[in-house]
Amino acid sequence: TRACLTQRQAKRDNLSDVSAKDGSQETAVNLLGLGIGFVLTPFLVSQTIIWCLFAVFTFFHLLFNYFAVRSVIMETFNQSRASILMQHYFDSDTKAILTPEECNKKESVLQ
Fold this sequence. Notes:
By secondary structure, the chain is mainly alpha-helical. It is 71% helix and 0% strand. The protein contains five helices and no strands. The chain is elongated and about 65 Å long. The two termini are 13 Å apart. The model has no long low-confidence stretch (mean pLDDT 85).
C-alpha cells in the first residue's frame, strides 16, 4: 500500500517529511498536467484525436506505474514473497536463500 511504501522510504523516522514531500510532488505533477490540458484543449477539435490522446496517455501512465512498482525493493515479507523464498529454498540444490532484490524480481506485480 501507499503507506507501506512511504514508511519504507522514511529511513530516519521522518515519515511525516517523506509523506509531505510525496504530497507536494503529486500536487506539482497534477498542476503541470492541468496546465498542459489547458494549453492542448483549444487544439482538440476531433473526437478521434481526443480518444487517441487518452489511449496514449493512459498507456504511458500504466507503463510508468508498472516500472515504478517493479523498482521498489521491499525487505519485509508478505505471503507472495514468503512463498517465493520457500519455493526457491526447497527447490535449489544449494539451499540458497534469495536476497530481497532477487525475491522482488520474481514476485508478480499483478497479485
